[in-house]
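My current task is to audit a protein record that another person submitted. I have pasted the whole thing underneath without changing anything:
***
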Amino acid sequence: TAPQERERALLRRGQHGGRRFLHGADTTQRVSQCPGCRAPGNSITPFWHHAAMSTNQTALEFAHAARLLGREARRRGLVAPSYRCPPRLVGVQRSLRRYPSGAVVAVQLKGRPWVAVLGDMIEGVVVVNRLTPPHADRLRTELWSALGVEVQGEVAKVA
């Protein structure tokens, strides 16, 4: 039939090193039809959206921490900065840009310990709100706690 001939042609075109690949998926295994693909009932070669996506775990953790810090800052009646990475300035680990409606804290992720990144994010909240001790110290401790990091003396432990 026509769909089977088309599939065979695609497999021949994607022949690579004894295994067949189409859009990065191994086609030696056949998969059942998904709702978004062609006619129901036909086994097909998986498309690109079937392949497992690689994720950048650090970026996901950064986004989660940014949302959590923003929520905690707003809950306390403070200005919640926006976060981005990397900083626009070359060679710096963090930077701050103030705007009339708020601020953006940019933090370098690559090549840095995660606790250092979190520290820069927390310090961004303190600086954006122009807090001074003892309010700044109390806020830092509360934000570390909200992130699930236990602070003991000079050493921070991730919970």
